[in-house]
Amino acid sequence: MKGKRNKGKEEKIVKQPEARQVFKGMYFYFYPNNTINEVRRVRIIKAIEFGAEWVKDWQEGITHVVVSKGHTYPHLLKFLKMPSLPIDIVVVNDDFIPGCIEYRGLMSMETLKDIHQVEGHKTNMAPPDIPSSSPDTRRSLQIKPSKKQMQPSQTPSVTEQSSLEVAHALRAADERSLAQLPTGAADPLFELMKEAKELQELPIDTEDEDSNAAISPIEDDSDESSPKKGSKASASRDGNSWQDNFQCMHKNTGMGGSDNPNARTIQVLQQMCEYYNKMQDQWRTIAYRKAIASLRKETKKISTRKEARNLPYVGERLAAKIEEIFFTDRLRRLDNAQQEPTDAVLQMFMKIYGVGFSQASKWVNQGYRSLEDLSARAKLTENQRIGIRHFEDFNSRIPRKEVEQHGKIVRETLQAMDPAFEITIMGSYRRGMKDSGDIDLIITKKNASLQDIRSIVITTLVPKLSAFGFLKAGLATMYNDSGSKWHGASVLPGSKVWRRIDLLLVPWNEIGAAMLYFTGNDIFNRSIRLLASKKGMRLNQRGLYKDVSRGQNRQKLTEGTLVESRSERKIFQILGVPWRDPVHRIC
Ligand code: DCP
Ligand code: CA
């Protein structure tokens, strides 16, 4: 059956391109089912333009009844002379039509839910069945909708029903690769502004004095039950103690638990989090991490906005996103972010070694759009040139075996000079990852001071390895402020691939704290540092300190007294954190 227009009024109907047809495969019966009312007339046209079939006479196969404002469900039943409608027919008011069309622009499902309820209609519990991949299979109205999309455990409450209906409709639209919408099409700036406002309400951790970045995803400074500052470090108490909330207290394998019922949602939110992290958007990065941490702890599937809203650290906006991911298996904002061309350029520039957000955005604003552009026309430092020339190398992961080979060359060269030197491969390698972004090597020697180690590394090791052609000049000139790091690039004999390598010079008496810090991951580190801070202590890559006095905003007022720095295990013990093998520090 084909949709028909009211014959009385000649109306030009321009069908939207298939990809935009949010109502394709749906059969709408309007009540009243005519175009006498101007508002209804326009809505019927819109429905058809966006893919719906308008059914003129009541019959089997109708998927939606669209009730005009001012009319009620009892009116409709009386008119149809039916005691009730089949359970699989969706009853909505006519705001449903613009709501669905505009949803992809700016309207939330929550808003839609509120606006498309029909007075007197409480009994319709089932969402519509929307054909998934092939709407054409339901061309015939004789085919009864199935309930396959409805899982028993997810039976919606009456109040959630409308939201589910829209979500299912949108899911069907998604599956037909509904990429953009015509009206009010997603404006990333608008989204960002709205989001920025809402995120202001989210709780945030204190800054850690040793890190520019903000802290762990899950800790809550407002926790009344935490010990008072300056109190003695205590071992973990019962299973529900405040300390148990810290990620560092638990084995973290980075899987988020493959059996986690919210694994897919976590995965999509993680991508969004990574995106914001790359954009140096600290607020959103934290908000997403907090939400992910909440979801990781959740044992039941979170499908609706309402359920998501009940999770700690999940605000309105994030709850909407969680619902969207559940129903659509993807996140619009992520698609938009990935499709935004200047975002893509910005992200690419930020992948150049040593280039941060501000330099990258400067180049974007100056009109550069590719690495070739930069090489040919931009004023570049020598390090930036190297970063561009070896862009591919520096952005590819280094297989574990190759990391070992780089480590071996440094170890053998150094131990040939002095066998007492110890070289340990840190970072993701120590956490057992199959590949690494760069090579982090701790260099230390029993009872040696930083000066002892540095003098050998600078005067002998680096020149020697450079002479071999293993270490490359350029980045190799850089020592950090305290003179304890050397950043550079290394190339295996016979290879042309440059790898990023960091030599981390650690005095013997700080080796435990340094091992802890350079094992990471960064989130684990933030978590354990904040835990120390809550116990009135302070942890950094040089040691664990006590009697640190802090001001109102937890800023450090005194350095404190060193408690432990030699033994990684002792630091765990003093903090009351059960020992975690490096492979269990992947948060
Ligand atoms: N680190 C940290 N906070 C940061 C950066 C680093 O605590 N902001 C610590 C934890 C990291 C370690 O230093 O694990 C090494 O830093 P990398 O950036 O090299 O990170 P990874 O080695 O963990 O990962 P990748 O494989 O990407 O190198
Ligand atoms: Ca690393």
Automatic annotation (TrEMBL):
EC number: 2.7.7.7
Annotated stretches, region: Disordered: 121-163, 202-260
Protein keywords: DNA damage, DNA repair, DNA replication, DNA synthesis, DNA-directed DNA polymerase, Lyase, Metal-binding, Nucleotidyltransferase, Nucleus, Transferase
Biased composition (Polar residues): 148-163, 237-246
One GO process term, biological-process aspect: double-strand break repair via nonhomologous end joining
Protein name, as recorded: DNA polymerase
PANTHER family per the UniProt record, alphabetical: DNA POLYMERASE LAMBDA (PTHR11276:SF28), DNA POLYMERASE TYPE-X FAMILY MEMBER (PTHR11276)
Function: DNA polymerase that functions in several pathways of DNA repair. Involved in base excision repair (BER) responsible for repair of lesions that give rise to abasic (AP) sites in DNA. Also contributes to DNA double-strand break repair by non-homologous end joining and homologous recombination. Has both template-dependent and template-independent (terminal transferase) DNA polymerase activities. Has also a 5'-deoxyribose-5-phosphate lyase (dRP lyase) activity.
Cofactor: Mn(2+)
Domain BRCT, first and last residues per copy: 18-114
Gene3D superfamilies: 5' to 3' exonuclease, C-terminal subdomain (1.10.150.20), Beta Polymerase, domain 2 (3.30.460.10), BRCT domain (3.40.50.10190), DNA polymerase beta, N-terminal domain-like (1.10.150.110), DNA polymerase, thumb domain (3.30.210.10)
GO MF terms, alphabetically ordered: DNA binding; DNA-directed DNA polymerase activity; lyase activity; metal ion binding
Compartment list: Nucleus
Family: Belongs to the DNA polymerase type-X family.
InterPro entries per the UniProt record, alphabetical: BRCT_dom, BRCT_dom_sf, DNA-dir_DNA_pol_X, DNA_pol_B_palm_palm, DNA_pol_lambd_fingers_domain, DNA_pol_lamdba_lyase_dom_sf, DNA_Pol_thumb_sf, DNA_pol_X
Top-rank EC class of the record's enzyme: transferase
